[in-house]
Each structure stands twice: as C-alpha cells, then as structure tokens.
Amino acid sequence: MRLVLNILWLIFSGVWMALGYLVAGVICCILIITIPWGIACFRLAVYALWPFGYTARQRSDAGVASGVGNVVWLIVAGIWITIGHVVAAVGFFVTIIGIPFGIAHLKMIPISLMPLGREIVPTDGVLAVGAR
Questions:
Q1: Over the Cα atoms of the chain, what is R_g?
Q2: Maximum Cα interatomic distance, the chain, rounded to a whole number of Å
Q3: Which residues in the chain belong to E strands, given as ranges?
Q4: pLDDT tens digits for 60-88?
C-alpha cells in the first residue's frame, strides 16, 4: 500500500514540493554561509518525494547550534514552506481520496518548520520510547 501511496503522492504533490526544497537548497548552498540549511533542504526534498513509510524524529546529538539555526530558518523560510504544506493539505482534504495526502502534508509541517537536528527514518525502524 505504501508503494501505491508514494507513487500517487509523487504524481500529485511530491515532485512540486521536492522541486521547491531543491531550489531552496541550491540557493542556500550558493550563499556558502547557509550550507547547513541547504543540506537540510536536500534531505527534505527526498522526504517530500517519498514520505509514506518514513517519519522524522529528533536527533539525540542535536545541540544549541541546531536550535539557533532552526530559529533563523523559521523566520527566513520555515513559515513560507509551512504555509505551502497547509494550503496543499487543505486542498487534499477537500476530496475523500486525497485525505492520506493531506495527512502526509501535515506530517511534514514540523520538519519544515525546524529541520536542523532531525533525521528521517523508516517507520519500521522507529523504536518505542524507552525501548532499546
């Protein structure tokens, strides 16, 4: 089922969202000082292409620099990307068939707001809290 959802996502939303993240990543890498945000954009582009079966979680080694970088990202780009995800989610929620895609857009909002200090992992690889 994930494969079918990912293929449909790719056609209806994934390519456009990934292109947006790729453009932002290239611009960030050209500006040298914003390379960490560019790398985060490239990770988000891959996640935007194929979101079903993956989830984002907080990295255990993220520090203060990630927090400060996320605040800068939130002000400069995070709000705009999030608005894009919200608008797309509302558009998908209008149709019954599009509800899973709307949920996927909502799932991407936290990582689009604050991408530094997060990693994208397969859903099957996520351990329960307290599990080892």
A1: 15
A2: 44
A3: 54-58, 118-122
A4: 787 888 888 889 888 888 898 899 899 99
